[in-house]
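Quick one, T. Sequence first:
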Amino acid sequence: MSLHIVCPHCRTVIRVPSQRLGESPRCANCRKALFDGHPVALSLADFDRHLQRNDIPLLVDFWAPGAVPAGPWRRLSSRRRRSWSRGSGWPR
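Structure tokens:
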């Protein structure tokens, strides 16, 4: 089975076989990693594209410039950042 994934760099929708998700897949258009473990800032149109076209879960954090994550979210964020930097790759 293949999944549709929106590239966080060029916004192209890419089909990736589910068995290859753990192999650091790259975008066929821009050749950058689909999962680099960093958050992606999205415009309203980009957010809609990611929401409508991705076959993977979308983790959303709405924030304001200068705001600091509070309480449990900060702890979750630091844990997730560590796991994502180890190459698990799934969330963006």
